[in-house]
Design a protein that fits this description.
By secondary structure, the protein is α+β, with helices and mostly antiparallel strands. Helix content is about 25%, strand content about 30%. The protein is built from six helices and 13 strands. Strands 1-5-6-2 form a four-stranded mixed beta sheet. It has a four-stranded antiparallel beta sheet with strand order 8-9-7-10. The longest helix is centred in the middle third of the chain and has 17 residues. The chain is elongated and about 60 Å long. About 30% of the residues are buried.
């Protein structure tokens, strides 16, 4: 298999949903810890190995397409084992005076920011990834007791259809270090031109790209 150095698209976008329709799609399941790496060896649910060596600082997101060949009717899509998400609903504030909306929004921003929690704002909802224990997050929300909002935990897979790919990446980018990958590891071989030309896995397997 050729070394994968970039993501082709994302299956959650309408454009790619249409392109993938009718193709044989192999799912490549990753935990969030593995997804933080730019270089790793993944295996699809049909046992195809995918050596991945992205540009430094680049990460995969749920739905990212790493292989697409309509001529042979095949594609491969990254599927992350996503954690739950704290969903804060602020829609009830829309009927309140603007001064109250500003005050409550600042209070919520302070509560989230003080915990250093990443967040994605979409419409009247704020999505906060599960970065600590649920009980801790609930305790923080209950302690602040911010008026006019409701909140609950929702499965990550139910949240992503409402988000753009870059928002999904931000929301699930902070993987827990308590999770450990069982995927193969490798180091990439770089030439002076800056391109990846091969890689070695820890079990001694060597892969070559075919530029």
């Amino acid at each position: 298999m050729e070394i994968i150095t970039e993501v082709i698209g994302n299956a959650h976008s309408p454009e790619w949903t249409a392109k993938l329709d009718g193709l044989h799609v192999e799912n490549v399941f990753l935990d969030q810890w593995t997804a933080q790496k730019s270089r790793f060896l993944a295996k699809g649910d049909h046992n195809t190995e995918y050596p991945i060596a992205l540009k430094r600082g680049t990460r995969v997101a749920d739905g990212d397409i790493i292989y697409f060949n309509p001529e042979d009717g095949k594609a491969a899509v990254i599927r992350l084992d996503l954690s739950n998400v704290l969903v804060i609903d602020m829609s009830a504030l829309e009927s309140k005076p603007s001064a109250d909306i500003i005050r409550i929004s600042v209070e919520l921003g302070h509560a989230i920011g003080n915990q250093h929690w990443p967040a994605v704002v979409k419409g009247t909802k704020v999505y906060v990834p599960l970065t600590v224990d649920k009980k801790v997050m609930l305790s923080v929300m209950e302690t602040h007791n911010i008026e006019g909002i409701t909140y609950s935990f929702q499965p990550g897979n139910e949240v992503i259809p409402f988000l753009a790919p870059h928002e999904v990446r931000r929301l699930f980018g902070g993987a827990s270090h308590e999770s450990h990958s069982h995927e193969g590891h490798f180091h990439a071989d770089h030439h002076h031109d800056g391109h990846v030309h091969g890689m070695h896995t820890h079990d001694g397997v060597h892969y070559h790209s075919h530029d």
